[in-house]
Write a structure and sequence with these properties.
- There is one protein chain.
- The protein has 15 helices and eleven strands.
- The protein has about 400 residues and is α/β, with parallel strands linked by helices.
- The chain has a nine-stranded mixed β-sheet with strand order 1-11-2-3-10-9-8-5-6, sandwiched between helices. The protein has a two-stranded antiparallel ribbon with strand order 4-7.
- Helix 1 runs antiparallel to helix 10.
């Protein structure tokens, strides 16, 4: 593992640790979702109600069930006798945000109530089957203030008005069958009194219907004197066994993933995501082909100059100036032939003129060079001064 990769991994670990620390120390946002689950300790859960139900409905049996009401009550239906009845008596109890009861179960509940039992339901909307059977209609009154005044119609409970916010809705009973329906409670929105709690007689039994389920939530049971309002509502339940239907739509949506605990907590969820990202980056960096270090090969040195100096010193030390002049002349004539394509067999006036025209050099300089070449060819021995003179002239022409 190279040093750069170690630095990247260290920075990633520091960033993840910093995010976890910041996230762990920030205040958790309040979950205002209307779950109405008995296990939920959020503001709109029913944990407090579930814990206090036995004390509120003292001396009453409370049986909780999560199967559908159809499955629950059908199991107690007496098929052995000719008289249609159930082997149990009591009150169905249900608190949810919206109707979560299917039509088959609602038919079973209607049958259960018709045979001398009761049903207490608190939800902001009811099934159309129930509304049609009991002749009522629900509407929603939108309001701009966050507070709704709730109170009961029975003066035996006093004139207390409970100002509630948080989870409250504008749903109310817009139409009721006055022949079979008794108004038990109201809510006031913007100065308008609206019905939110009714009792509907249905054959030998009765339905208690309430449109503000938030009154039974953790938030209102623990706030001010709002628990008095919920206790007054529950006091209408007859002194018989209570069958609490505790299943709702949100509880059905719980993830069955093995990671649901990690993913349900923001800190653990982000730690898990960063771990996966870090592992992917680690794999990508290490997946590259590791190449051995390429050795640095020094380029070959140009020894031409050194070689020339060495040869020149050798000739100079021997004092053979004539030989050096001969080689210089040979090199000069070879370059003239290659660069200007001029015949160097005869160094006459025609040669001088052609070289002057093609090279652009001074004609007098060329004439002097030709004269020195001829002079050297006629002489037996040349001096150092002759070597210097002819070298300077030839260098000026070929430069």
């Amino acid at each position: 593992m190279n040093k750069t990769l170690k630095i990247y991994i260290l920075l990633l670990v520091v960033v993840i640790a910093g995010i976890i620390f910041v996230d762990a120390n920030r205040p958790k946002p309040i979950d205002w979702r209307p779950t109405y689950k008995v296990s939920a300790k959020t503001p709109l859960g029913l944990y407090v109600l579930d814990q206090e139900m036995e004390s509120v409905l003292s001396n009453q049996k409370i049986e909780r069930f999560v199967t559908t009401p159809y499955e629950f009550f059908d199991a107690y239906y007496d098929y052995d006798t000719l008289v249609r009845n159930y082997t149990i008596k009591g009150t169905l109890f249900s608190v949810t945000n919206d109707n979560t009861i299917d039509d088959e179960s609602m038919i079973e509940i209607l049958t259960f109530v018709r045979l001398g039992n009761h049903a207490f339901m608190s939800m902001k909307s009811f099934s159309e089957l129930l509304a049609d059977s009991l002749n009522f209609r629900i509407e929603n009154r939108y309001y701009f203030k966050d507070t709704i005044q709730n109170y009961l119609a029975n003066k035996q409970f006093g004139d207390a008005v409970y100002k509630m916010n948080g989870g409250m809705t504008g749903h109310y009973f817009s139409e009721i069958d006055t022949l079979y329906t008794t108004v038990l409670g109201y809510q006031k929105i913007g100065g308008t009194e609206l019905t939110n709690f009714i009792k509907v007689d249905y054959y030998d039994g009765a339905f208690f219907l309430h449109t503000q389920p938030a009154a039974f939530s953790n938030f209102h049971l623990l706030k001010d004197n709002h628990s008095e309002y919920s206790q007054k509502l529950l006091s209408y339940i007859p002194k018989r066994p209570v069958y609490w239907y505790q299943k709702n739509l949100l509880s059905d949506s719980i993830s069955q993933s093995p990671l649901r605990f990690i993913l349900s907590h923001p800190a653990l969820k982000w730690a898990w995501y960063f771990f996966l990202i870090g592992m992917i980056l680690f794999i990508l960096f290490n997946a590259k082909r590791k190449q051995r270090i390429v050795p640095v090969i020094k380029p070959l040195e140009n020894t031409t100059v050194d070689f020339t100096k060495t040869i020149g010193n050798l000739y100079f030390q021997e004092g053979n100036h004539g030989n050096l002049i001969d080689k210089k002349i040979i090199y000069f004539l070879e370059k003239i032939r290659n660069d200007y394509l001029i015949d160097t067999t005869k160094l006459d006036d025609a040669f001088i003129k052609k070289l002057h025209l093609k090279s652009g050099k001074d004609q007098i300089l060329i004439e002097k060079a030709v004269r020195l070449i001829h002079k050297h060819q006629r002489r037996y021995q040349s001096t150092e001064e002759d070597l210097i003179e002819i070298n300077n002239i030839l260098e000026k022409i070929v430069d």
